[in-house]
């Protein structure tokens, strides 16, 4: 994976409800696969596959602690989505502000 995390890859990965639940659980701190699987309606193999998708998208990272592998949220994925949303909303809000300004100027021209 490159150093640049794609917001599209992150959003695609979050399109699955099980992966969103995994991300929500990891928001409370690092967890091993078994702990994640115990809290979800899918087994360990499925959780491992979901973790791979989330890792490939840049949302999750894993570290080895002895013989255990702990999974945690990776800030780069969140940052990529936040930047993408800011850009999208920036354009929308800019267009809205422009529209309001146009309406205000039209009202000022009509006022006596």
Description of the molecule:
- With 112 residues, this protein is an alpha+beta fold.
- It has one domain: Winged helix-like DNA-binding domain superfamily/Winged helix DNA-binding domain (Arc Repressor Mutant, subunit A, Orthogonal Bundle).
- It contains 5 helices and 3 strands, in the order H-H-E-H-H-E-E-H.
- A 3-stranded antiparallel beta sheet has the order 1-3-2.
- Strand 2 and strand 3 form a beta hairpin.
- Helix 1 runs antiparallel to helix 4 and helix 2 crosses helix 4.
- It starts with 6 loop residues before the first helix and ends with a helix.
- The model has no long low-confidence stretch (mean pLDDT 88).
Going by CATH, the architecture would be: Orthogonal Bundle
| Helicity range | 55-70%
Order of helices and strands: HHEHHEEH
CATH superfamily: Winged helix-like DNA-binding domain superfamily/Winged helix DNA-binding domain
Q: Give the biggest sheet.
A: 3 strands, antiparallel
Mean pLDDT score, rounded?
A: 88
Proportion of beta-strand residues: 5-15%
Number of strand segments: 3
**Poorly predicted ranges (pLDDT <50, ≥5 residues)?**
none
The backbone outline, from C-alpha atoms, is elongated
How many whole angstroms does the radius of gyration measure? Answer: 21 Å
Instruction: State the strand order across the main sheet.
Output: 1-3-2
């Amino acid at each position: 994976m490159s150093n640049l995390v794609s917001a599209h890859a992150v959003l695609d990965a979050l399109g699955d409800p099980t992966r969103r639940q995994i991300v929500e659980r990891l928001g409370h701190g690092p967890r091993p696969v078994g702990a994640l699987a115990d809290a979800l309606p899918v087994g360990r193999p499925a959780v491992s596959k979901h973790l791979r998708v989330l890792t490939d998208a840049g949302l999750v990272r894993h570290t080895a602690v002895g013989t255990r592998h702990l999974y945690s949220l990776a800030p780069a994925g969140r940052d990529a989505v936040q930047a993408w949303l800011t850009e999208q909303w920036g354009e929308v809000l800019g267009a809205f502000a422009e529209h309001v300004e146009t309406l205000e100027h039209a009202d000022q021209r009509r006022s006596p």
